[in-house]
Amino acid sequence: MNWPATERLRLTPAPGGLALVQELLNTAPAGHPDSPDSVDLIADGALGPAQEWADLAVRSWAAETGRGDVHLALTAGDLPDLRCLRDQLRRALAADDQDGEAVRFTSAPIVVGLSGDGALSVEPEGAGARWLASAVLAEGLLAQAMGLWRRLKICRNEYCAAAFYDRSRNNSGVWHSVRGCGNAAHLRACRERRRAVG
pTM (2 decimals)? Predict the structure, then answer.
């Protein structure tokens, strides 16, 4: 699969369609401001890079979920809507306080189908950002129903903030990389303790 936003951060994609949610989250700038990872892939004025990202991400999602080709055309007006969705998802996943205010997405419709054998399916509907929001929220809902949603997290290193899928046995990960972000956090805490003592 080709998940450009997630792969630029050298992360392993989440399983199944949940990788599309992770992919949207990872379009945000991450890392040091001078690094290539610090580019917002859906920034205003970046319709070309945003369309390129969406083409690859939607193609990977379709392959991962067994769907046919999906062609998504973004407009400049779609970019603020996608950033709003991304930011609300990031806040919800990063929140320590689970009593946050609920957000309703009324412009992200999904179609629930019932096949002859009784199987239910969920299909995104709309165009541009509306279709992508529909797909992302549907995948989030499906992941929640399967118990996978709680494993999608935002790295607690404020300079990183990458979206990662926690594969630890007890779902206790807080950094996307214990060696990188985890060690940096421990080092900062150690220095602060030394300053407080000295």
Answer: 0.87
